Amino acid sequence: MSCRCTRKLTMAMSGCVIILVIALTVGLCVGLGGSESEGVREDPPKFTIDHESNSFVLNGEPFRYVAGSFHYFRAVPEAWRSRLRTMRASGLNAVDTYVEWSLHNPHDGVYNWEGIADVVKFLEIAQEEDFYIILRPGPYICAERDNGGLPHWLFKKYPSIKMRTSDSNYMAEVGKWYAELMPRLQHLLIGNGGKIIMVQVENEYGDYECDKDYLNWLRDETEKYVNRNALLFTTDIPNERMSCGKIDNVFATTDFGIDRIHEIDDIWTMLRKLQPTGPLVNSEFYPGWLTHWQEMNQRRDGQVVADALKTILSYNASVNLYMFFGGTNFGFTAGANYNLDGGIGYAADITSYDYDAVMDEAGGVTSKYNLVKQVIGEFLPLPEITLNPAKRLAYGKVEVTPSLALLSAEGRSALAKGDPVESTKPKSFEELDLYSGLVLYETELPSIDLDPALLKVDQINDRAHVFVDQELVGTLSRDAQIYSLPLSKGWGSTLQLLVENQGRVNFYISNDTKGIFGEVSLQLHNGGYLPLENWKSTAFPLEEVTVEAWRKKSGERALDAFLARQRILRNGPILYTGSLMVEEVGDTYLNMAGWGKGVAYVNGFNLGRYWPVAGPQVTLYVPNEILKVGNNSLVILEYQRTNKTANGEDLPAVQFDAVAQLDGQSGDVPLK
């Protein structure tokens, strides 16, 4: 189809234009994927483009890839090989992955390349499992990750930084990051004997900005390390802004899902206007979709997905299924979206990245997998691979003991990051060098001359539980656009706002800093408002190592009887501890039905945020790789409420199930 389109375009051109097109084609054959250095390379690139046949060429032979996205940071390292092997068994011949800057560079000058951050090990395993690799180093990746993968500390170091532009500070930091990242990956490039065939420059940039100076700089910065040993490419949403993401001498691709498959000819035409020749590529074909808290789980019909994939492949196009395996946003890594023009305010992404992908969150084969595999088998050979999926086990009910009140002196001593920071205005998370977790803001209330008087906050990012003398008086919320509540006379003297970061915006990046911004003010009798100043800001990072150190030190010590009986947590968050006895290790799901909102840890591993009262996700995935035979520790940090009955004497409890619940609000579901 693409060849016929090219012939029609050529026949319609005048002679002088044909000469220009030939010259352009020659330039593209030389230039796409990296510019020539002064010396002439003796050996031709191992992976390149044939612009006459509109195809990729690998080691001198025509090549087409059917890839699947799998982000190494969404599965524990011990599971990487099994996930990749399941993907390869479907017939995929390439794997696509992002590199997350913030994971590897969590603080300025600090780098992490171990465990889940061992990207080199992941890519080496992918090669061993017979995959070619499509590498997407960003530096911005979106991916429904906190801040689109950009480090939070950039906001502290450069408060007015303009991400993803030719801002000199931003480019300098990207340069430092690439100098750390790229040399580690060079041996894996196809031209150096590895299997990375393509390296992306930026990500869906045309829909964000049109800064060509930045794009050209990033192209050159990337090529400095790639050095024609792989093909440079871009990916852009097919719309009127595609040209803003196109970079000279870089191969252009597009992305679209089943909702636009009926427009496929128009989409290819848009791509051809930018790039007259070369293979057609859909770099993100969506077999599922992302989900936010407080909305229906996004599902896509498997047969419709398979039919759309077959249509794309019938054009001799290459394609990447995003996501083939989605996995999990462990810890505080899930991002958020914000788009007032599109009718969405702030909406945080759920912890699960199941995505209704081809494989499920635990890496299992689905009916969609079998349908997709059948289509791939019509175009590529299917390898003979025997799969050995992990068992999924239900461990049943586990009672948990209330063990630590977060806002108590002991809680602050155990989990706060240093002493409170005193300032006229509240300090942001970024000013406190805090990636995520909670910040407690405290100040003394003036005498209230109205009953009630309205407390008003200009902006809260993202959610605040409001206390007076550690008694809950209400909740403020960015996603619900609730920024005020009444305070009554005589409630107390110390105002406390406990603010939660629910995830930085990952799309349309616009410096989504966290905390309290603008004025916090109290209504006066004359109708005016009195700004409140002289704040203490206390950071609670809630990092795995800190929580686990507290648990090992304290054991399962119970709080006093009053706090232990609470169903609604009126005095602040409480940490609950419990023990899961395991006789046989398998994948399982922590069922938080009936609980409110919080974070859960198993054996010191942060499973992520839960919020079953909002839904649709009710369970948290627990990988078998973090469990052990015998006792396994459980810590739950609950912000709002437990699933105790109002007058029940039993301890609150959770349940470990063999099946995920991602499709509905839980309400007060009794545990078995």
UniProtKB/TrEMBL annotation:
Residues 573-632 form the Beta-galactosidase galactose-binding domain. Keywords: Glycoprotein, Glycosidase, Hydrolase, Signal. The active site is at E204, E284. The keyword Transit peptide does not apply. Pfam families: BetaGal_ABD_1, BetaGal_gal-bd, Glyco_hydro_35. One of its GO terms (molecular function) is beta-galactosidase activity. Residues 55-378 form the Glycoside hydrolase 35 catalytic domain. Residues 426-525 form the Beta-galactosidase 1-like first all-beta domain. One of its GO terms (biological process) is galactose metabolic process. Residues 1-31 form the signal peptide. Belongs to the glycosyl hydrolase 35 family. This is GL19091.
